[in-house]
Design brief:
The complex is a heterodimer of chains A (about 280) and B (about 300). With about 280 residues, chain A is mainly α. Chain A has helices at about 5-35, 40-45, 55-95, 100-110, 115-130, 135-145, 150-160, 165-170, 175-190, 190-205, 210-215, 225-235, 240-270. In chain B, helix 4 (about 70-100) packs across helix 9 (about 180-190) and helix 12 runs antiparallel to helix 15 (about 270-300). Classes of the chains: A mainly alpha (about 280), B mainly alpha (about 300).
Chain lengths: ~280, ~300
């Protein structure tokens, strides 16, 4: 490599590394802040110090485990329902012929154009009139009913890409439509369903508006809303514990990401998202 | 008669498909088609939080277009949206170009993972961390300014409490605005440009800047259009910062229409008026994204 090339590459690495460092610094600040005592935090919050104080996490976990549990229940049940409904419908649209197919498909996709601001208030009133406020149902139902819209859109094109031979061979053996879906389509679409599931789970993790509106009983809040409404206020005088709570709240996503980042990156790099 | 019979026959043949679609459409009918219709319908009503509704014609709309809080919240929304949108389109593009230019493939994939790391912190946590960064006396922002000698040692800066500063503070949040997912989407586009095109440009003596401007950017128009349209749609609706950090304040200086709708509905209990704000925003978002789409479409047909 010529010298000028080496120099420009070195400069490039330096710029990228500095930008990444600036980006990560607030997160690192939170991480080592969670291991400090109140006193060391006052004097030296900008850099990590020893000894590590682990007891902060006890209070942090006590203050957040309930919300984490609720989030896992809501995300787990909601995402499972969403995947089942979306994949069956996407399979039907991609592989079966029936009257009104295009009209029905368009009427699903058109819902992607409806912004949340239009449905927030009437949606709240609807759940209220069903008497569903303050329940897991009010958190799960929007995922199970609205979640499949994007799922159908994503999975239909995937099912259409599966070669016909796969299905024809099974049809010759006398497999019914549902069996084709269950035995052939589903196993093939596990990776893309994984991507969809990750997006949905991260969405549940981040959403605080809907739980804040529909849940009065603090014991039913999910993690994002719980952090805002109760946890941050309760521990505002003790930043290390607050930061500990942020770390605890992130741990499940850290686990999820460390197992799936390869697929997430591959998925994004291989599909071209554009308009 | 015959056509009726065949239609009925066709419908009967389709019964299995309808059965498979029924879980989807049952949910959609009740929870996805009904609310938007109900929202537009109730925008003509005095609708309270108990559910009592009284028809009042265009009164909500008349009130809304004379409502100072709403009228002032519209320019605020654009003041926040436009810089944030430009940043979220341009900065990831620059980052993608830089990472793409890295020759060492191992380092390149390491950078790809590093830029995605902030995903593991829930969105609320990053908002709350910025609250800490913007603390007027002991935050990181004021601390850095003191360290560099840009502020007196006993200075206090109300980043989020000063009406003249708060918009800037909101725009600056998230610095250096890398946005890992966007960077990866851009990189996917860059990888699709054929090496022949790039090599022939290099043979013609085109420098890096020239190549980015006349080859990369035209090829990435699809991605840019995607970010622009979905940025407008989601950016105009977003009021997370208002809920977590500013409460619309100081005064009304960070009120945006979505936040005003939220306040009218869930603290004032005026569901009808809030539905009117929602309906107007829906119309505006729809028109804007259509306009942006049209403009970008004609733009790229030339290339």
């Amino acid at each position: 490599m010529p010298l000028s090339r080496t120099i420009s590459q070195t400069v490039l690495h330096a710029i990228i590394l500095v930008l990444i460092a600036i980006m990560l610094y607030p997160l690192l600040l939170t991480l080592w802040g969670a291991f400090k005592t109140d006193l060391t935090f006052m004097t030296s919050k900008w850099y990590p110090t020893l000894p590590l104080r682990v007891t902060n996490f006890r209070s942090a976990f006590m203050g957040t485990w309930r919300y984490l549990f609720n989030t896992v229940v809501v995300a787990g049940v909601g995402t499972t329902l969403m995947l089942g409904i979306a994949s069956l419908a996407a399979f039907t649209f991609a592989r079966m012929s029936f009257v009104g197919k295009n009209v029905l498909y368009f009427s699903v996709i058109a819902l992607m154009m409806i912004p949340g601001v239009l449905t927030l208030v009437p949606g709240y009133m609807l759940y209220k009139s069903f008497g569903l406020l303050d329940s897991y149902a009010v958190l799960i139902l929007p995922i199970a009913t609205g979640g499949p819209i994007f799922g159908v859109f994503l999975l239909r094109s995937f099912f259409e890409g599966i070669p016909k031979d796969f299905f024809e061979a099974a049809q010759m053996d006398g497999a019914h439509d549902f069996k084709l879906y269950y035995k052939i389509a589903l196993p093939l679409c596990v990776p893309i369903m994984g991507t969809l599931a990750i997006m949905q789970i991260v969405g549940v993790w981040n959403d605080f508006l809907w739980p804040m509106i529909t849940i009065n009983d603090y014991n039913l809040l999910t993690i994002a809303a719980g952090l805002i409404i109760t946890f941050t206020g309760q521990h505002s005088s003790n930043m290390p514990v607050t930061f500990g709570g942020y770390v605890v709240a992130s741990l499940p996503l850290v686990l999820l990401f460390s197992f799936t980042n390869r697929y997430y990156i591959q998925g994004l790099l291989s599909t071209s998202i554009k308009l | 008669m015959k056509s009726v019979r065949t239609l009925r026959g066709e419908l009967w043949k389709s019964r299995k498909a309808y059965l498979f679609l029924s879980p989807l459409f049952l949910g959609l009918l009740v929870f996805c088609y009904f609310p938007p219709v109900s929202g537009i319908y109730h925008s003509f009503f005095d609708w309270d939080s108990v559910g009592q509704a009284e028809f009042i014609g265009w009164d909500n709309y008349k009130e809304l277009f004379r409502d100072e809080v709403f009228l002032n919240s519209v320019p605020t929304a654009f003041l926040i949206l436009i810089p944030r949108l430009l940043i979220s389109i341009v900065v990831p593009l620059i980052m993608a170009e830089m990472i793409f230019s890295v020759v060492n493939k191992k380092m390149q994939s390491a950078y790809r993972i590093l830029i995605l790391l902030p995903i593991v912190a829930p969105g609320v946590v990053s908002l709350l961390i910025w609250k800490f960064i913007y603390d007027p006396t002991s935050g990181l922002a004021i601390g850095l300014m003191k360290a560099f000698g840009w502020a007196e040692p006993d200075a206090v800066i109300h980043w989020l409490g000063d009406p003249g500063l708060v918009i800037f503070s909101i725009i600056f949040m998230g610095f250096p605005w890398i946005g890992g997912t966007s960077v990866l989407i851009y990189m996917a586009g860059l990888m699709n440009i054929s090496t022949e095109v790039i090599e022939s440009a290099q043979l013609d003596g085109a420098g890096v800047w020239r190549r980015i401007w006349s080859i990369d950017i035209p090829h990435l128009m699809g991605q840019i259009r995607f970010f622009l349209i979905f940025g407008i749609i989601s950016g105009l609706q977003d009021f997370g910062i208002q809920i977590v950090l500013t409460s619309g304040g100081p005064g009304y200086s960070t009120y945006v229409p979505g936040y005003y709708m939220y306040i009218e509905a869930f603290t004032a209990g005026r569901m009808g008026y809030a539905s009117t704000i929602g309906t107007v925003m829906f119309a505006a978002i729809f028109a804007l994204s259509l306009l942006a789409f049209r403009m970008m479409k004609s733009d790229s047909s030339n290339t």
